[in-house]
Model the fold of this input.
Amino acid sequence: MSGGRNFDDLITRFTQNIYAHPKGKIRLAIVQSDLEDNIPQLCQPGSLKVLDAGVGSGQMVRYFAQKGHAIVACDISKNMLCESERLVAETVPSADVRFIHQAFQQLPHEMRGQFDLVICHAVLEWVDEPIEAIESLLTYLRPGGRLSLMFYNVNAFILRNLLKGNFRKVQSGDYRGHPNGLTPNNPLDPASILDALKARQIQVDLYSGVRIVYDYLSADMREQRSLEDILDMEKRFSRRDPFRAMGRYVHLLCTSGTTT
Done:
């Protein structure tokens, strides 16, 4: 199984283009709101053992560390892992975090069945076999553990290109991004992921859309509206049909009955 895209060569662009930008702030705000509304233990320091599978530059690790939880964070990108370590060391120096330079599919066998919460955000769309990746993630959950998946939505990608008049791109059926860019090489159909989870008796507790408003605003309107106002609209409609289906990302929060 492929470990996925290694971002060692894109760490500066990734950090500047995602989390220093409103789109990254919106992404974090929606996902964190989803977790806080559905996992009561988040407000109980030390009650969760969390695996961040594909840690990136560390925003979610810092989030859990600030809440006092124990975290294992892994990534195949050494540069990303170092950036994550730096962020946590500067902001939550007493955090209980173990950083591992490794693909989550190859974590030590003794970690299986050990986590209350496994998060895998903006990773599945970079691997060649996302369903196998999900199966791997499930092995790390304790019975009744929670899985948080966020992935790039192919339907939003198609709609965005239709609105821009990129009909040839849509007609081609080739939705891969540029090899050196930040658009994923394997955007995912939410229906296929939902079907895969159902087939494995995984309960989907929450389905929300991430950036259902911002990505469809014109550049001028993005300048006119405050981030606070946009976030208010994002939160208002992110869990409602039909709007959630058009989020640039889809966030699923699931519960595992047993380890796999």
About this structure: The chain has one domain: 8-255. Residues 22-38 form the longest helix (17 residues). The radius of gyration is 18 Å.
